[in-house]
Amino acid sequence: MDDLVIRSRRVVTPDGVRAAAVAVQDGTITALLPYDAPRPAAREHDLGPVALLPGLVDTHVHVNEPGRTHWEGFASATRAAAAGGVTTIVDMPLNSLPPTVTPDALNAKKAAATGQCHVDVGFWGGAVPGNVKELRPLHERGVFGFKCFLSPSGVEEFPPLSLEEVRPALAEIAAFDGLMIVHAEDPALLAEPTGPTYPEFLDSRPGSAERSAVEHVIRLARETGARVHILHVSSAACLGPLREAQAAGIPITAETCPHYLTLAAEQVPAGATAYKCCPPIRSAANRDLLWQGLADATLTCVVSDHSPSPADLKVPDFAAAWGGIASLQLGLTAVWTEASRRGHDLADVARWMAEGPARLARISGKGTIAPGNDADLVAFDPEAAHVVDAHALHHKNPVTPYHGLALKGVVRTTWLRGRPIDVTARPYGTFLQLGAH
């Protein structure tokens, strides 16, 4: 007898959306059966028309603990993740103190997170000037890859790499078949904003800076053979070089984020620095091209880049405000709202937000509803609607550009390894490591 069977008229599988029953034993999916197939189980749920999705995998989350826990911590971040249908997050190495650039710093982060995680959590390491010798030890301790910046990160304890410093880091990472993930903006093409408004901020970080950085990274990936991933692509100017590199067999992938797919520069209100992020939200026309990049698989992942901060850092001046968007709990509904309007289906969304990120980070057992995988599942009502109230979210600070927006789709239940997540109860998320399942 199975522990659990969940039936739905819309189960989202790697082969598409279909009526099915998902059987679960000991936290693992044991079978995918016809909807009406008899299957003895200790517990059974029939969702009817409510869809069943794989738990989302968000590989771009800034939790900030330890050190800046008042910005966001593991307890609040993983509650928000579970409420938004995310069952796995991979935490970024910066904004915590210390940043995750040595094995000791990784141990400190794990100690801070222990006992707090409502979803499964993995970790990225960081590549900063002078830490090439730390990359292999971090890899051996199970980080999923290494993040670097080509331009200033916004925090002094995580400085950028010059192109001359990127090369030896990539060579070392290639030696153990690791992954470098890159914040790609060319510092030579960035400028200080000339004033406090959004157009002035946008002008200071042009799409040409992204494209130039991506072209540099493509060249280094070709020369070193290292696997490279471009983070948070905001400019459609990057898509051409990425397509050409991928067609040439260079091991480079790229992602974008919900805010680049759902928001547009033209709609940013004056002084509304909840919209500020780097790289910036660009035009509606640019947004259309990003959707094309998803459709043709130039971009393979949609992840949050959840980068929250306290309200007092979001001063109403785009030159001075902290740059980062909080959206961990809202990514699924925001993307589904726009994707459905554009003719995409739930299978597309699951591919971009669950399967793609799991494949990128090589997280085994996650990202799809398939026998042998973890029973990380989401009951999602795609027709329901809600209006975002920032104060009702689980994010530690109620600052998000989605406040007051009407979005389509509501998460009804999230299961982690076959257990429904109750964010008011004791957490049971685990730490994930590269190569382990």
Query: What is the top-level CATH class of the largest domain?
Result: Alpha Beta
Widest beta sheet: strand line-up: 9-10-11-12-13-14
Terminal residue distance: 24 Å
Beta-sheet strand percentage?
Answer: 15-25%
- Mind telling me the C-alpha Rg? 21 Å
Overall pLDDT metric: 97
CATH topology of the largest domain: TIM Barrel
User: What sequence of helices (H) and strands (E) makes up the elements?
Assistant: EEEEEEHEHEEHEHEHHEHEHHEHHEEE
Provide the CATH superfamily of the largest domain.
Answer: Metal-dependent hydrolases
- The CATH architecture of the largest domain can be named as Alpha-Beta Barrel
Number of domains: 2
Structural class: alpha/beta
Main sheet attributes: strand count, strand direction, barrel closure: 6 strands, parallel
- Total count of strands: 17
Low-confidence stretches: none
| Residue share in helix | 25-40%
* Count of helical stretches: 11
Pathway: Nitrogen metabolism; (S)-allantoin degradation; allantoate from (S)-allantoin: step 1/1
Pfam families: Amidohydro_1
EC number: 3.5.2.5
GO molecular function: allantoinase activity
Tag the structure with descriptive keywords.
437 residues; alpha/beta; TIM Barrel; 6-stranded parallel sheet; 4-stranded mixed sheet; 17 strands; 23% strand; globular
